[in-house]
Design brief:
The protein is an alpha+beta fold. It has a domain at 9-111: Jelly Rolls, CATH 2.60.120. The protein has helices at residues 9-12, 73-78, 99-108, 110-136, 139-149, 151-156, 159-166, 170-179; strands at 20-24, 29-31, 39-45, 48-54, 57-64, 69-70, 85-88, 92-98. The strands form two sheets. Strands 1-8-3-6 form a four-stranded antiparallel beta sheet. Strands 2-7-4-5 form a four-stranded antiparallel beta sheet. A hairpin with a 2-residue loop joins β4 and β5 (57-64). Mean pLDDT is 88; it is low at 1-9.
Length: 180
């Protein structure tokens, strides 16, 4: 969905011992909305999503794939409760690092701090794009933008998550797809 903070493997080499490899099944909540994020996840294999709870209804806000890093970065950096949950969509292989260890790395690698700033700017920009798309585009147009800009999402992510992300029902999404 978005180009996350990617770091060349050799940049992490000195810190490899700080990472833990986890195999996680599909539909596993890694962080619940309202909890403080203490872990950053790097996706080796699989797909994750972020979502919010709106009166018992899950609304998907982003998707993440191999090579992406995921955390509730706002919570991770400020120790405030997360505004959203993080959940696996597929079985995943993740590399995880603690908040403290990541902070230590940032202090030792100024170039990583710059990448984090760039990552946060891209994430803000993508959130703004989605918000403005909700305000100005109908569901058909939002789906067209998604398939044009992020075809891998449509190919890999279950339809009900895509519908939630677009702010429509699965039935409406089926109708839109059938018109194409």
């Amino acid at each position: 969905m978005n180009k996350q903070m990617t770091v060349k493997p050799n940049e992490w080499e000195d810190f490899k011992h700080l990472f833990k490899r986890q195999e996680v099944p599909a539909k596993k909540v890694l962080l619940k909305e309202g909890q403080v994020s203490r872990t950053m996840f790097f996706i080796e294999k699989g797909c994750l999503r972020t979502w919010i709870n709106n009166d018992g209804k899950e609304i998907t806000t982003q998707f993440f794939f191999e090579g992406d890093s995921v955390s509730s970065i706002e919570s991770f950096r400020t120790n405030q409760p997360s505004l959203y949950s993080i959940e696996t969509i597929e079985p995943c292989i993740l590399q995880t690092i603690s908040q403290k260890d990541f902070q230590d790395i940032l202090e030792n690698l100024p170039e990583l701090r710059k990448k984090l700033e760039d990552h946060l700017f891209r994430r803000l920009f993508q959130s703004q794009q989605l918000m403005y798309s909700y305000l100005k585009n109908n569901p058909q147009k939002r789906y067209e933008e998604l398939t044009e800009n992020y075809p891998h999402i449509v190919q890999r992510v279950p339809q009900h998550y895509i519908a939630s992300y677009l702010g429509i029902t699965s039935v409406s999404l089926s109708r839109i797809r059938n018109r194409q």
